[in-house]
Specification:
Helices cover 3% and strands 53% of the residues. With 171 residues, it is mainly β.
Length: 171
């Protein structure tokens, strides 16, 4: 992967092995890669992106990060600089929200030597639950995070009597 167009086309083959060959700066609101099941080797390069979303009760996508979700995937040797800002309105029917600097929701995957910097700011009136992490928002079923770091501040504000938010620097 040498450029934004190639990065954005990953969703055409989610189970392949990709190697980043240059730094990529994304200058539009990023649409996260969903359902990734392959190998992504950042090769020591940096991806820079932003997601700014202010919504009504239901966000456009409840999975926010460079990768929305991954299962049985491997993401390694990657630096990510991101600015994520999400503000949602309230409703009894809100979906759960997952926010991660690199992966929003990871299942049975390995993230190794991945590093996130930037900012994560989430304000929600969500009446369900939110998971927010610098590397991974929510990790399921043996997800491993190895030799990785987050230096981004994570700010959350829950404006709900029912919903709860789980936040962590890494996960």
């Amino acid at each position: 992967i040498y450029n934004f167009a190639q990065l954005a086309s990953i969703d055409l083959n989610l189970s392949s092995h990709y190697v980043l060959k240059s730094d990529i700066e994304i200058n539009v609101d990023w649409e996260p890669i969903s359902n990734f099941t392959g190998i992504f080797d950042g090769n020591g390069h940096t991806i820079t992106y932003s997601i700014n979303e202010t919504t009504g009760a239901i966000p456009n996508d409840p999975y926010i990060g460079l990768f929305a979700s991954c299962t049985d995937a491997e993401i390694k040797n990657l630096f990510v600089t991101g600015n994520i800002s999400l503000t949602t309105g309230g409703s009894f029917f809100n979906p759960n929200i997952y926010v991660g600097g690199i992966v929003a929701n990871s299942t049975n995957s390995t993230l190794e030597n991945v590093h996130f910097s930037g900012n994560i700011n989430v304000t929600t009136s969500n009446d369900n639950n939110s998971w927010i992490g610098g590397i991974v928002g929510k990790a399921n079923n043996n997800t491993q995070i190895l030799l990785s770091s987050n230096t981004a501040p994570i700010t959350t504000n829950v404006e709900s009597m029912i919903g709860s938010t789980k936040a962590g620097g890494i996960c």
